[in-house]
Amino acid sequence: MQLKFIYLFSAWCLALVMPLSSIATDRPSNPENDDPMKLENPMDVAYLKKKLRRGSPRLILTPAIEKQLKKDLKSDEVVKNVYEAVKLNAEEIQKQPLLEREMEGRRLLGVSREMLYRMNILGITYRIDRDEKILNRINDEVTAVSNFSDWNPSHYLDVAEMSLAIALAVDWVGEDLPASTVELAKNALIEKGIKPSYNKKGNTGWVDGNNNWNQVCHGGMIAASVVIAEQDPELAAKTIHRALEGMPHALEEYGPDGVYPEGSTYWRYGTSFSVLTASMLESAFGTDFGLADYPAFKESAEFRALSMAPSGWYYNFADCGDKRSENGDLTLAWFAIKTGNGVYYEKNRFLRNPAEMGELSRWAGAGLVWLSQFDEDGGQPLPLAWKGDGSNPVVFFRTEEGNPHNYYFGGKGGRGSVNHGNMDAGSFIFELNGVRWVVDPGNQGYHNLEKTGFNLWGRCQECERWTLLTKNNYGHSTITVNNALHHVDGFASITDFQDGEHPEATIDMSEVFGGEVASATRRFVKEDNQSLLIEDQIKPSDSTQHITWQLMTTADVDIVEGGATLKQDGKELKLENLSHPDLMVSMISLDPPPLELDRQIDGLKRLEIRIPAYLMSKDGETIRVRLSGE
């Protein structure tokens, strides 16, 4: 599927190589549950002074960890190979100008992320090779950003990522930097990093928020606190204590099964910062205070792995990117260490030609450390059918690796008002024989929407967000009643799930339609390795005028008697209207899309089966559609 983006992605965004970064959430959510399960929290000044590791490095690296890393660089093929890519990245960074305080709209986030990338790459390279040229470049970089007027506290993600970058630089390299640079950097961490987070009039809703802002911002503040602990132990202890109290509000969102409600690329963002935080706490204090063992956190690795389809696309629900990187997933590698499950360690991807890896993750320095800590010990294969509950429940059906049909299905419930949520309850994507036949329109860039005055972040029923095809139900493969938007707070739960050779899942969508039907359920069944059955049971109410069954695709479509034939890449998929074969499938082109601000997707179209109320039984109507391959 060829995509024309109406916006520019950053190097970490939704591009086909690096799928995350400029899609960070832009609203620090308020907590929905004020009393999550707590982390251990003995943090006070006395604990800090007693337990904090003396000397550096103590953020992710320790002398013992570094010794093992250098040993593995001689013997471990993965560590050696990834480090070759790190060194290539270091060479490229040194060709670039120093960073300047250049805003993009209301954000400094691109600059902060670039700084975090540079300090990870240059910092770990210097620790290993002790190249004075790299040391001088780190000194220049740290001096430049420490002298910024501020790190843009009105958008605190910017502060958090910059704070982590500076903290890592000082911790990893500070012993060899000029004393004046270290003093400048530590003062900047206090005045531009930590102190603005105590401004109650500022953008600090993340402190007890339940989305990725919480994870990112607390992680950055913890890193800064560890580095300035000797200079201001009271501020450091207070900030780490606050983080240990606040982080459970976000960690709770993984429950009960590990689904990250904001989608797979946001899993990569929020979870990576929680992993960085756990690593920093362990190295600095000898404990992560229960973070890694928080209920459903480790289980989220299974969700992440299942979200990556055979095609290389994500199941891209919510504000998720389209395609994963071809490089190995460094955050999943940390989960491989913690769970002992080698299925999360993408060895073949880590052994790609270093010259082809391109720009690495901005936590690649930390990731190299994690790779050196992995001991290969087999692993459990991913399940062929899986259901995860939570605030945005999902279900997956798939075939085993190596199966020629590459069957992959993802479906979901949830509600539109969840963090980064869309009106996509009941929607699904479907791949077969290497083709994504049923698509999700995915995400689109924030800045190009916001600069027009578009209110992207309001989540009320009438809010502007729902005019976009990527956000409303008209752009998703679901059910629409009376041509109306889904009810934003109506929750669709997965009420039944059956594993086995023919797995199935049922979603209760009744709340989503807010009385426009008396009840509605959607059932998905994997009939065999080449077919998917979608069965909707809808009981009309007095308000029901008509039902629209929708399927989004970029394939070529031939409308035929009783259904349609989809064609793409020399392959075909058959759509059979089993329940209403006399109703013709209609096709609505969405290329170009309805609004100028909508995401442009080449060849996008919506297939519809429209059923007027007068054809429906008052006792309930069943819509049955089968999708099957060759």
Question: Would you give an account of this structure?
Answer:
By secondary structure, this protein is of the alpha+beta class. The chain has helices at 45-51, 63-75, 77-93, 109-129, 132-146, 156-173, 179-194, 212-227, 233-246, 248-251, 264-285, 300-306, 330-339, 347-350, 364-372, 447-450, and strands at 3-4, 385-388, 394-398, 408-412, 428-432, 435-438, 479-481, 493-498, 504-508, 517-528, 531-540, 546-553, 556-560, 563-568, 571-577, 586-589, 600-601, 605-612, 621-629. β9 and β10 (517-528) form a beta hairpin. α3 (77-93) runs antiparallel to α15. The protein is elongated, with a radius of gyration of 25 Å. The two termini are 20 Å apart.
How do the helices and strands line up, and which of them pair or pack?
Blueprint: E1 3-4, H1 45-51, H2 63-75, H3 77-93, H4 109-129, H5 132-146, H6 156-173, H7 179-194, H8 212-227, H9 233-246, H10 248-251, H11 264-285, H12 300-306, H13 330-339, H14 347-350, H15 364-372, E2 385-388, E3 394-398, E4 408-412, E5 428-432, E6 435-438, H16 447-450, E7 479-481, E8 493-498, E9 504-508, E10 517-528, E11 531-540, E12 546-553, E13 556-560, E14 563-568, E15 571-577, E16 586-589, E17 600-601, E18 605-612, E19 621-629
Antiparallel strand pairs: 1-17, 2-3, 3-4, 4-5, 5-6, 7-12, 8-9, 9-10, 10-11, 11-19, 12-18, 13-14, 14-15, 15-19, 16-18
Helix pairs in contact: 1-9, 2-3, 3-4, 3-15, 4-5, 4-6, 4-15, 5-6, 5-7, 6-7, 6-8, 7-8, 8-9, 8-11, 13-15
